[in-house]
Structure formats: structure tokens, C-alpha cells
Amino acid sequence: MPGDSRACNVPAFRYALERWPADAYRILVYHRAGPLGAAFELLQKGAAEPDGAANYSLNGIDVTKPEGRALAGQRSVVAYPWVEIYYPVHSQVRAPVWSGPLTLDRARKIVNSPIRSRLARTLLSGDAAVWILIKSGHDRKDRRALESLKTHLDRASATLRIPDIGADVNGNPVEVTDFKTYPVRFGLMEIARDDPDEDLLVSALLKSEPDLERYGEPMAFPVFGRGRALYALVGDGIQEKNIREACESMLAWCSCEIKAQSPGTDLLISADWSRPFGGRMVKDPELPLTGPSAFLQDREPATAAVPRRAPKPAVPVAVREAPPAPVQAPRPAESPLVRNVLYLAGAAGVALLALSVFLSVKAKR
After folding, report:
1. How far apart are CA 94 and CA 122, in angstroms?
2. Beta 165-167 vs 173-175: how paired, if at all?
């Protein structure tokens, strides 16, 4: 019998495709008073609205006004109009994803690009995920990374299946037939790091984690849903174990998590996501649920971690772990020693005050 959809018996990638609207990027255009020009108008047409296809908001800043002039003064603006593109508000990255002069050609590249268009079409056609390989420029390393991805993604497509046993609302096992014949496919696209048509996409991926721009290695990003990129596999980390675990996680049942608490960064993509392969397959009410929670869990804790990154010389690099929680110094009231010192200081202060009053009175006599 079909599974109870309220128990989240939907693969994570499919739930994300149907129910996770892409977070909106923020685009600021610094300009002088007067007509804003064709480039700004093109961005206006694509700006994110309730029925819009692109996931960005647009704001113009007039630098002839005091507020705009003050903001522009804090930037390295060398020409007008000038555009800055920022990650969605949920991102921890505060620096611009890209900035530079706004021309008509640049506006077209912001709204769309060949790889981003193909990425959207492939995800809408039913692929569970598309892996994007950013090449390093080193032929041998790039060939090895590409061969590894092709081999292991083909194997994952051929051998992995969406689970057919889910759980009802009480946690009891239940057969799920909705995805029994769903084809499992993982796509692959490659980009040169210096591709002028894809510089916004490359920048959005490389800046999604704080240290990626420092690596001169090929990098692979799994992208699912409506263009949500997960963590990067770098250099020697582009290997079977890491690739397969990422693929398995996207096929697992979705879990009850708010999207903002799940890993990943949405990419800026213009697409109509309302007509996915197979039509509407998620039948539960629209709730702020799910996420590929396997990415957040420790997998096989008893085994050694497989590196996601190419190791630096003499420094082994393992799978990145969450940073340890900051250790807070105890508050004074919680420390017996500090509390006692404060009590003695207070008593000494009272005694000193009493002595000064006594001496003052005695002097007056």
C-alpha cells in the first residue's frame, strides 16, 4: 500500500524539488540619478516576485543622495552603474559573491548562463542530483577527477534505488510504492574555473565555504532540488566512498528539518520549477519540513574518515567536522573564589566608608 505521506516517505531530492523554494540572492545596483538603462531594466524583469522565475531581489541605490553616496563610499566602486550580488540572507557569507560594472552583457549573465540553464532542465527532468565539476586547470588532476566522477556516478545510477520501505506516523514499517519505478540518475557537468560565461556560478560555488578558493584542485559539488549545492569534494576527496555516500543521502527519506537548518547553498537560477518530471508526487500539506539529514549525521563513526579535500603538504585533511562549541568562561557568580573575593572587597569598602565618616566627625569636634 502507498506510504502515509505525513511520515515523510518522500526522497529528500524530490521533496526539495517540489517544496523548497530557492532562497533569494540580493542584488544592489549603485547608480547616478536619471535613466537606469537597459541593463537595470533587464534585471528588473527577472527579479524575484511571487510568480517570478529567478531567485533574486533587486535594489537600486542612487549615489547622488547622501545615503547612497555613503554606501558607495564604503565600496570599491570604479564605474557607474555598479552591481553587487550577495548570497541569500541565511548564508553566513557577508562579502559579495560578485561585483563589477553593470553592462547589458553582465545583466544577461546574471539572469542566466548555459550551465545554469542546463542544470535546471536536468533537475526538472528527474535526475536526483547533478554533480558540477570545477576544473583546476591541471590536466592530469582534472582527468582523474572526471574519470572518478563518471565511473562512480554511473555505478550509483545503476545500483542505487529509492527505498521501498518507509514508516507510518507511528514509526511502523510500511511499504512505499510511489517511487518504485522512479529512475535513479545522477548527472555530471564540468566547468573551467575561468569560464567567462560561468564566472557567477563558479564564484557562488567557491565562496560557499570559507577555504575553497585557496585550493588549486578540481572540486565537485552535488546539486539537487531547485539548485541547492551541498559541500564540495576536493582533489583526492573525489573518490567512490564520498561520492556514493552523497548520492545515498539524497535518495534517503526526507526528515523533519527546517530548510535553513539543512546544509547547502542555493544557486542563482532562472527556471520554472512548477512542472517537474512525473508531475506532483509530494501529496502532504506544504510544511517547513525535511532535509537530507544524513549529511548532518556522523556516518560509520567507528571507521576512519575519508578525506574530502586534497591534503596540503605534511598536513592530513579529513572530512570537515563541525567546529567545537565555544567554551564560555564561568560567570563571576558561578565561581566560589571570585564570589568570595567580591564579598571581601564589599566588606572592605563598607569598613573604609565607616572609618572615613568617623574621622570626619572627629575632625569637626
Report:
1. 30
2. antiparallel
The predicted pLDDT at position 178 comes to: 83
Kind and range of the H or E run holding 224 = strand 219-224
Tens-digit pLDDT profile for residues 313-343: 332 233 333 333 333 333 333 343 333 334 4
DSSP helix/strand/coil, 294: helix
Sign of CA dihedral 71, 75, 80, 86: negative
Pairing of strands 98-101, 82-86: antiparallel
Instruction: Pick 44 or 339 by higher pLDDT.
Output: 44
Pull the grid cell for residue 63.
Answer: 549615489
Burial of 319 (0-12, 13-18, 19+ CB in 10 A): middle
Contact 13, 223 (CB under 8 A): no
Question: Which CA distances in Å does 178 have to 6, 275, 277, 304?
Answer: 14, 18, 14, 37
Domains in the chain: boundaries: 5-21+112-295
Cell, residue 97? 559573491
Do residues 166 and 2 make contact, with C-beta atoms less than 8 angstroms apart?
no
249 near 294, Cβ under 8 Å?
yes
